[in-house]
Amino acid sequence: EIRAAPIIDLQKHSFHTMLSRSIAALVGCTSAFMAAPRSRVSPAVLRMNGGVFNAMEAPLVPRDVLFGNPEYAAPSINPDGSMLAYLRPVDGVLNAWVRSVAGGDDRVVTKDSYRGIRQFFWAEDSKTLLYLQDDGGDENFHLFAIDATTPGAEARDLTPCPGAKAQNIITNKRFPGELLVAINERDKAQFDMYRCDLATGKLTLDTENPGGVVGWGSEDESFEVREGIVVNPD
Description:
This protein is mainly beta. The protein has two helices and 16 strands. Strands 3-4-5-6 form a four-stranded antiparallel β-sheet, with no helix packed on it. A four-stranded antiparallel β-sheet has the order 7-8-9-10, with no helix packed on it. A hairpin with a 5-residue loop joins strand 13 (190-197) and strand 14 (203-207). The two termini are 54 Å apart.
């Protein structure tokens, strides 16, 4: 039986008396807990040797469970609701797949055979699939676009800037033919905001980083860059 510790009147007891009673109550609770019945654990999962857990005899979680590719991942429906995109391995490498909402016509749209694709999303035109990919692990991710409605379409690099990285992509349903993307082409330590025409791939410098801006935001109605995020020096 576990009994609650008695209420102590701070005005009538000294510190030492309070401490002694607290320790006694704690010991009583601990003893009761140790004497309480425990649920059994299968020896195949947990083995107790003299009351000590032996980690060496616990089964190992297979590496492919922890680090392997999922069978399917990251489902995403395009803005007009007609197509579903998702990630699925091809020869052990994650690629982007698409299918109609009705299903039964699944096909792979990207052709990555090395690093795999982890980040993708739809453009607001409902037919262009956008994804980020670097070159052999250099972590300078570029933004690619591919027409998901045309079988056999080739991906286009929308940010073909050697040694530069693309991030902070912004789309807007009122401007389905363009997007905003931050690129550090001018200065590797600063990301400027560019406006990209999806049809032609043309990049136009929209907002130059004045220094220290680590993130950008846009106004919804006009799709103009109106927000810059700066980290405090401290």
